[in-house]
Design brief:
The complex is a heterodimer of chains A (about 300) and B (about 300). In chain A, about 70% of the residues lie in helices and about 0% in strands. With about 300 residues, chain A is mostly helical. A two-stranded antiparallel ribbon of chain A has the order 1-2. The longest helix of chain A is centred in the N-terminal third of the chain and has 38 residues. Chain B is an all-alpha fold. Chain B has a domain of about 170 residues: MetI-like (MetI-like fold), CATH 1.10.3720.10. The two termini of chain B are about 35 Å apart. Classes of the chains: A mainly alpha (about 300), B mainly alpha (about 300).
Amino acid sequence: MVGLSSLSQKQKNKLRRAMFEASILILPMAVFVVFWIYANLDSFLLAFQKEDYVSGSKELMFTLDNFKTVYRELFKDKILLGYFKNTVLFFAVALFINLPVSILMSYFIYKKIRMYKFFRVVAYLPNIITSAALVVLYKYTFMAGGPYDAILAKFGKEFTDLFTGSSALTMLLIFNVMFGFGPNMVVLGGAMNGISQECLEAGEIDGCTWFKELTLLILPMIWPTISTIIILGFAGFMSSTGPILAMTANNPETFSLSYVLYSYATGIGYFGQNIYYASAVGLTMTAVAFPLVVLLRKLLNRIQED
Amino acid sequence: MATRNFSMKRKAPSQKIVFSFAFVLMALYTLLILFFFVYGFLISVKGSQLDVNDDIVSKTLFSLPKHFSLKNYVTCFVDWEKYTNFSYLTMVWNSCWRTFASAFLSWFSTALVCYILVHYKSKFTEFLYFVGLLVAMLPLYGGQGATYRLYKNLNLMNNPMINICSITLYGAYFFYMYAFWKSISHSYIEAASIDGAGDYQTLFRVMLPQVLPSITALFIMQFITAWNDYESTAVYMPEFPNLSYGIYVLSERSIYIGIIPMYFAGVMLALLPVLTLFLIFQNSIMEKVYLGGLKG
């Protein structure tokens, strides 16, 4: 074994640097290997397993039954297809309503509209209260005796419960829109704050209107941030959801794939626990989403290059 | 700042109309959001459940209380336990230590990992960044069941040691941290090294203080998210309930057991710590957090 004293100064520095890096990286890497790599590999195997209830041994056996059930629920019974449609709706609302409105709100706050500090604080408020409590406040607004009922009564209309039947999904979507601007505004506001003032002043001298300033100067300059939001959002688009557990946990018409996975994986909520089926559903979702994410990233990169 | 104010003064009339319209819309949105908080407060100071019942019948739940009372803010400390099997103080304590532990471990480990990835460039650290990029973009959805089983097998359910999972390579704000470290010049490390500082000294005395204002904002955001998390408590730590979980559990029962004012008092109290933190750090959160593009 070579002693430390026999190493050159350069080698010692290299060793010291490696030890420093290792001291910081080793624990996070170990946790990552166990709780991310192993868990995801295991979930792949779980998708092809089920417990042997027939013999009563409860031993795990190889099966394709989970995928057969996924296929049946997706294309024949169309139960999963319904959840998939809801998921797409949740994602579409986030992408086509929340993101553009967040950009506009961030722009006006960036331009220091009157009371801008107050506006940005209030816009973020829904994110600092637990969604379980926000859901209750929301439900109490639309319940019998609440403000919504009072308004209906003023116009002589009969009260209807909006959290049952098909209107429940609309209520979830409205909830997502109403309280979903905060996180985007933080990131977009930060990106806008990094824009060079000289560039905007040059645009102003050239007679840029606010719309041109936003679309031709600011948006291209913060495009890396916007594309990152879209890519990360798209990578998790099948996990788009609303506060279903707290709001409409017993109404399948509102379920998203993410909620279904949570419920099957944990046994909390509408479904009983079935981690094997949950893994098969998850694997199917991955197979569908992966090529879409790759394509989207290529498309966004091309837009950026253009 | 002065240049921006200068430009505001020279706005054309059409611009002024647009900005005024935007102001009105944002003011309306602000009122809408504040309405929910005021509504919750008004219910929490109603004298009794009977008052609430009367208001529901007369459709005046959103109204000033007939008998204003703050006693619900006291009784929730005493009576919460009757309905959920755990006291409000227990939940406050669990919220504090659990939130701080998980938020701090995740935040601190991600900050240090990103420091290495940005300022100690090598093929290995580039590979780690590439894996981080892959993890962020790989749409893997099926891991919950396997994670549940893993936690169960490792005896991490209802075990404070579960916080070890928060020591992450790619935490929630990985790309933000990465962008922050990239904005700090590598020459500081070289200068510190010439002055004889070791790696740890350079990290903790030279580099970390420079990004601290920005990454503190991320810690507050992570703290708020962890404070409000009830879904993972329901699955993994129900014996260590936090305030959010308590609020969730009671919300499932409050309509039936007639403790609505007390429930809302509990909600308002749970909001106080994070609201205070947010108001203190709101400028940092709103102005210093930024996210770059995904390269690689």
